[in-house]
Write a structure and sequence with these properties.
The chain is built from seven helices and 15 strands. Helix 1 (about 40-45) packs across helix 7 (about 300-310), helix 2 crosses helix 3 and helix 2 packs across helix 6. About 25% of the residues lie in helices and about 25% in strands. The strands form three sheets. Strands 3, 4, 5, 6, 7, 14 and 15 form a seven-stranded mixed β-sheet that branches. A six-stranded parallel β-sheet has the order 10-9-8-11-12-13, sandwiched between helices. The longest helix is centred in the middle third of the chain and has 16 residues, at about 130-145. The chain has about 325 residues and is α/β, with parallel strands linked by helices. The chain folds into two domains: about 1-130 and about 285-315, Medium-chain alcohol dehydrogenases, catalytic domain (Quinone Oxidoreductase, Chain A, domain 1); about 130-265, NAD(P)-binding Rossmann-like Domain (Rossmann fold). The chain has helices at about 40-45, 130-145, 160-170, 185-190, 225-235, 270-280, 300-310; strands spanning about 1-10, 10-15, 25-35, 70-75, 90, 105-110, 115, 150-155, 175-180, 195-200, 215-220, 235-240, 260-265, 290-295, 315.
Length: about 325
């Protein structure tokens, strides 16, 4: 089989490697398609650690950082039940970058880290299940404190995670969903996926005020950026959930007293993955609009450059597409 490997910052090879064999509790998945996770891809390709204080070693683990994948079960390891060869599955959890990843034609996954794809659900609609699970974890926190249903909810950062969050807020009964992003095209994408109103955070037309009429009950930050989080904190009455990777301190001051909850991130879990899959199966969450283009792995660096320039939300890589073939729309 072939798999992709980042051998040095900015340098990638698409190489021949042995087909792995699943061990106890594992399955071999024939990868049909795999989507980028923009921040992971950009950071690893650029030689920058994803999390503050981290470090990277090259050559990077083959197939990594690919983890948003869907495919067919090709073989079962000992002890696996509930799955069969030929079952369509989506990956919901990356076991870690020390293991070969999904930028490959075949990948071994823990059987517990894949979910069968319901009948009638297409590949595009479910390939980024792992991202949906992650966003669901943040919504689980907000749902526990009754901060979504019949509430006004703001979503800041309308990249892939933000567009998932817009749909989840609607699915869980938000009275109004406000999409916040400086990029007009991303605000438009949020509107098409259900956002009721839109905001350019740099336009200055939403004055701060946690008790003002425009204040929201809850907000989800999908940027991890200090200005974005503080923008939300100054306009939210009940809770701000931080989904984006936080790289610097934010200021929580006296003006935030009086009931504002600042929520960090909880662990990935299969229950959240199943809830996200249920939303997909019910037609309340569609991940297909996150895909901006399809490319073969031979054009990996080109695809990541599109992400870096914010010319795409996600690139869908097709490991079985002939090298050098024209990209699909």
């Amino acid at each position: 089989m072939k798999s992709l490997q980042i051998i040095a910052p900015g340098t990638v090879t698409w190489q021949e490697t042995p087909v792995p064999e699943p061990g106890t509790g594992e399955v071999l998945v024939r990868v049909v398609q795999v989507n980028t996770c923009p921040h992971w891809d950009i950071h690893v390709l650029d030689g920058v650690a994803m999390f503050p204080g981290g470090s990277l070693a090259y050559p990077y683990t083959p197939g990594q950082p690919g983890h948003e994948a869907a495919g067919l079960v090709a073989a079962l390891g000992p002890g696996v039940t509930g799955l069969a060869a030929g079952t369509r599955v989506a990956c919901w959890r990356d076991a870690g970058h020390h293991r070969p990843g999904c930028y490959a034609q075949f990948v071994v996954m823990n059987a517990d880290h894949v979910l069968p794809i319901p009948n009638g659900v297409g590949w595009d609609a479910v390939t980024s299940l792992e991202l949906a699970m992650c966003v669901q974890v943040s919504f689980d926190q907000l749902l526990r404190i009754d901060a979504v249903r019949n509430r006004r909810v703001a979503i800041a950062g309308l990249g892939p995670a933000g567009l998932v969050a817009v749909q989840m807020a609607k699915a869980y009964g938000a009275a109004e969903v406000i999409g916040i992003d400086p990029i007009p095209e991303r605000r438009q994408a949020a509107a098409e996926l259900g956002a009721d109103s839109l905001c350019d955070p740099g336009a200055g037309d939403w004055p701060a005020g946690r008790n003002a009429p425009r204040a929201v009950h809850a907000a989800v930050d999908c940027t991890g950026l200090k200005p974005s989080i503080e923008f939300l904190m100054d306009r939210t009455r009940q809770a701000v959930a931080i989904f984006g990777v936080l790289r610097e301190e934010v200021a929580f001051g006296p003006r935030h007293f009086g009931g504002l909850w600042l929520l960090g991130y909880e662990p990935h879990n299969s229950a959240a993955a199943r809830r996200a899959m249920n939303l997909i199966a019910a037609g309340k969450l569609d991940l297909a609009p996150l895909i901006s283009a399809r490319l073969p792995f031979s054009r990996y660096t080109e695809g990541i450059d599109r992400l870096r320039r914010k010319q795409a939300l996600k690139i869908c890589f097709l490991p079985w597409q002939a090298e050098g073939a024209a990209p699909q729309p």
